[in-house]
Design a protein that fits this description.
The protein has 342 residues and is mainly α. It is built from 13 helices and 5 strands. 53% of the residues lie in helices and 6% in strands. The strands form 2 sheets. A 3-stranded parallel sheet has the order 1-2-3. It has a two-stranded parallel ribbon with strand order 4-5. The protein is globular and about 75 Å long. The chain starts with 8 loop residues before the first strand and ends in a 6-residue tail after the last helix. 41% of the residues are buried. It binds tryptophan (TRP).
Length: 342
């Protein structure tokens, strides 16, 4: 069963919860937005996914605007790419329901994000809701509605994209037709996994706030402080600064951060700092990050200030996305034998 080569299409999303981190910027926003110049591109805010953990209504509203503003500040060009809010396109939930019937409980039970989150819920009276369990199925619907070929997401989402591929193949196989496009999972080349500055064996995450985590809202002094205290190692020789991720994870993390900020390689950054001490490396990292964050914060504030314009962009995005999604959904339903509504 082969299909015509699908048009290169990129799609990715992020939840409107909390303040995004430097890890989100370097591992998600910037690499994902690079595709808008070469691909048909869809970027969205996944509010339906956010509610798998109970959200304060005012915060959810504010965070949805915030994430949209960060996308735009990070360079999303609304003339080139489609930016929208997931819940503004109803086909996501409808296809999600249908795909539930092509997904096995066992597959969802094996998802590590679900396993991690259910550990956090263990013993709490709220328990684990069904939405959290079915989260990856809705994500599969997000991807398949737009025939995405590339899904740039962090390593932690690889399993979900792989499940999406399995679901698409299973659907196509059931009906003997290539109805759904099977996506790839793309990992960005640099800075894909920014680590916690205090514990470079862990991913930098807003769920572990504090000195190890740089927030996109941090000011210059906060950024400097966090990098100054970053964990490195006790090596003080002339070869201390070199790129060796296994042996020197803290140093490698700083080199990768600088490289991602300056669109170069960690090896090249290490070469430039050869023979220097860790103080110089940390100062360099803070400077590289501040040079990226300052214009980004200004641009984000400007978008949030002009709320009406931001809402217009989201509204236009939804009206561009909706017909594409509706066409895929109609094809799926028609293939399955649903009676078309007149
Ligand atoms: N699960 C993703 C995350 O938490 C967000 C997401 C939802 C997503 N739907 C998507 C990412 C579709 C890529 C494609 O990061």
């Amino acid at each position: 069963m082969t299909s015509a080569t699908p048009a290169p299409t990129v799609l990715t999303g992020i939840q409107p919860t909390g303040v995004p981190t430097l890890g989100n910027l370097l591992g998600f926003f910037l690499p994902a937005l690079g595709f808008q110049h070469t691909h048909t591109a869809y970027y969205f805010v996944v509010d339906h996914h956010a509610i798998t953990v109970r959200q304060d209504p005012a915060e959810l509203r504010a965070n949805t605007h915030e994430i949209a503003a960060w996308y735009l500040a990070a360079g999303l060009d609304p003339a080139k790419a489609t930016l929208f809010v997931q819940s503004h396109v109803p086909a996501h939930v409808e296809l999600g329901w249908i795909l539930n019937t092509f997904t096995q409980m066992g597959e969802l039970e094996r998802m590590t994000q679900y396993k991690d989150k259910s550990v956090q819920h263990a013993g709490k009276e709220t328990g684990i809701n069904v939405g959290l369990f079915g989260y990856p199925v809705l994500q599969a619907a997000d991807i398949l509605l737009y025939h995405a070929t590339e899904v740039p997401v962090g390593e932690d989402q690889r399993q979900h994209v792989e499940l999406c591929r399995d679901i698409a193949l299973r659907f196509n196989h059931s009906y003997g037709q290539p109805v759904l496009t099977v996506p790839k999972h793309s990992l960005p080349p640099h800075g894909a996994r920014v680590r916690d500055l205090q514990d470079p064996t862990k991913k930098m995450s807003k769920s572990r706030p504090g000195l190890g985590c740089v927030l996109l809202t941090d000011d210059t002094a906060e950024v400097e402080k966090k990098f100054k205290r970053a964990v490195t190692d006790s090596d003080s020789g002339a070869e201390a600064i070199r790129y060796a991720p296994e042996e020197k994870p803290g140093v490698a993390n700083l080199l990768e951060i600088i490289a991602a900020c300056r669109a170069t390689t960690p090896q090249a950054v290490a070469e430039g700092l050869r023979g220097q001490q860790y103080g110089a490396l940390k100062a360099e990292a803070a400077a590289a990050v501040n040079a990226v964050l300052q214009p980004l914060q200004a641009a984000k504030a400007a978008w949030l200030h002009d709320r009406a314009q931001l809402d217009d962009v989201l509204q236009q995005g939804a009206s561009r996305a909706a017909p594409v999604a509706a066409a895929t959904l109609a094809r799926v339903k028609n293939t399955m034998g649903y009676l078309p509504a007149r």
